[in-house]
Amino acid sequence: MPFEPVSIVIPSWNGAAILRPTLRKLGELEGEFEVLVVDHGRLNRDTEALLAEFSSDSRFRYHGLDEQLGFAGAVNHGTEKAAHRLVAAICNDVLVERDWLPELLRAYAQRSAGGKHPVLTSLVTRPGFETALSSRYNIWGRIVDTGTAIPADSYVPFFPDGSAFLFDKSFYGVPFDSDYFLYQEDVSFGWRAWLMGESVCLVPASRALNADGGTTRRTPHLTAYFTERNRWLNYFCFLSFWNLLRLLPALGLDNDIKFLAGTNRWAKLKAWCWLCMHPLVVLRKRARIQALRKRGDGEIFLLLTSRYVAGNGVLNKIFRFYFAIVGIKFGP
């Protein structure tokens, strides 16, 4: 069956060296699509020169920007320039399989029946370990192994894997808040979809490999800063006021544990200072998000786990007891 045309957006930060195999894999795909490479924060013209190698294929387009947009801003820029309603975003170090796009589109055609607008995410593997379908996203912003394997066909992710996902830009607009820059922006997008009464769906037959070029490893301080700041932005924007109050003791204890652990303390302090110094920015973001609400927090909490770490340690028992006392029910 013929599928709808798709715009494939690839953000790249001076990543020509790891982008070449990604483009070659995309060139092997069949169907109607365009590929937009957003080369942002460029320090040279290596990526532009790489795209010139694909100039004979009109499906490939290059967008060079001197401004550093971050992953979120670069995907948004590509989405705005995209010619098609459906947009698939992938990282510049992702190698897609031949059926990656057809399987996404086949699933979208099925799941969008009845006026729905699901966000679809591919089954992405990474070197060194298998995709953990026993893992769940916890309320503290981490992925933990729950110890119970879930069949791929019934696995419900809380947010799309930022390495490879598809959405309808005519419904969602740009997927991310560009202020997030990088990290937690995919969580924000998934949370927004669920809040709006939509869904995030895993498509097991749409497979890709994240070769893990690790461009963000160049900036460990910024990685820690944005991860912490954006995690708290998600809490302040998406949770109801009452649930935010009930969760604060657990979220705060997590902060204390991580701070005492001594990793990236300065980055975390900087993140908390930003939040304290920009209350109006946070409130404006919250107002925009809450205006979209069609689903209560109670339903969304069932997609998350209260498991703090793998196993059944003391902290897991403490937090389970606390959530039972305050009346918050999470998933397994």
Provide an overview of this structure:
By secondary structure, this protein is of the alpha/beta class. It has two domains: about 5-215, Spore Coat Polysaccharide Biosynthesis Protein SpsA, Chain A, CATH 3.90.550; about 220-325, no CATH class. The protein contains twelve helices and ten strands. It has helices at about 15-25, 45-50, 70-80, 100-110, 170, 185-195, 220-240, 240-260, 265-275, 280-290, 295-300, 315-325, and strands spanning about 5-10, 35-40, 60-65, 85-90, 95, 120-125, 135, 145, 165-170, 200-210. The strands form two sheets. It has an eight-stranded mixed sheet. A two-stranded antiparallel sheet has the order 7-8. The longest helix is centred in the last third of the chain and has 21 residues, at about 240-260. The chain is globular and about 65 Å long. The chain starts with 5 loop residues before the first strand and ends in a 6-residue tail after the last helix. The model has no long low-confidence stretch (mean pLDDT about 90).
